[in-house]
Specification:
The protein is mostly helical. It is built from 8 helices and 2 strands. Helices cover 71% and strands 2% of the residues. The relative contact order is 0.14.
Length: 274
């Protein structure tokens, strides 16, 4: 938030504009200056937050699950409930009994995306790492690799690939068309839509939240120069607080959707006939 204020203030004419925004909104997402370097590897803010998210997830799972006590603490109850939700409602609920095999991957996805999303509303961070396309794209490609490998390993080349591009249940005149649609859908569009859905939602939320709250603070702080127009800042700030609450829901929902769809894709690879 502090960086957003600095960027907005530097190019904001509160007398003639109704909202403050940096000249280039990419400045809200791209952090190229390294915080520190180890050898030839530069730790930018984004890289640092990715490692921080990883450590937070490891810490939460370790301290939340390491002791199976008769009367768990509130923290352990929350962690166990979230793990149980991913296990029962996503892994086993979608994939079936075989879902237990994929629980570690789905659990890692859910917690990592959730923490990365919640960075958006974390004080002194205010930046969701999932708003950088490289991260959602990487996770989508990993999911794609998992369900494609699972499909070939479980069903063989003929049943997984040939039957998909030449479906015998479809009238022969339409098989080529349906086959092309299935080929593009399964092997091309799935990872793209999986990544873009998460990326677009987090970018939109981060942009709206940052601009509204920053504009609110800037307009109100300049009440001596602009008088009653500072009321615009109050409106933006109230809207920003509404978006803030909404983004909590979005952060959880997008982690759930990404994990759920990953499970769905794995399930359809295990049982392509369905």
């Amino acid at each position: 938030m502090r960086d957003a204020l600095i960027l907005a203030v530097s190019g904001c004419d509160v007398k003639n504009e109704v909202i403050c925004a940096p000249t280039d909104v990419n400045e809200l997402f791209e952090f190229t200056d390294p915080l520190f370097s180890i050898g030839g590897f530069h730790f930018t803010r984004t890289v640092f937050l990715i490692f921080a998210a990883m450590l937070i997830v490891l810490g939460v799972l370790f301290f939340g699950l390491r002791r199976q006590r008769l009367v768990p603490s509130k923290f352990e109850v929350v962690v166990e409930s979230m793990v149980g939700f991913v296990r029962d409602d996503i892994a086993k609920g979608v994939i079936g009994p075989a879902g237990a095999k994929y629980l570690p991957y789905l659990l890692s996805l859910f917690f990592f995306i959730l923490v990365g999303n919640l960075f958006e509303i974390t004080p002194f961070v205010n930046f969701p790492i999932t708003s950088r396309m490289a991260l959602p794209a990487f996770m989508a490609i990993v999911t794609w690799a998992v369900f494609v490998v699972v499909g070939f390993a479980k069903n063989g080349f003929k049943h997984y690939f040939i039957d998909a591009i030449w479906p015998k249940s479809v009238p022969i005149a339409l098989r080529w068309l349906v086959g092309i649609i299935e080929l593009v859908s399964i092997f091309v569009l799935r990872p793209i839509t999986l990544a873009v859905r998460l990326f677009a939602n987090m970018v939109a939320g981060h942009l709206m939240l940052t601009l509204l709250l920053a504009s609110g603070v800037i307009f109100v702080s300049n009440i001596g120069d602009i008088g009653l127009k500072a009321g615009i800042g109050v409106v933006w700030f109230v809207f920003g607080l509404g978006i803030f609450v909404f983004e909590v829901v979005v952060a959880v929902l997008q982690a759930y959707i990404f994990t759920l769809l990953s499970a769905v894709y794995i399930q359809t690879s295990l049982e392509p006939a369905h």
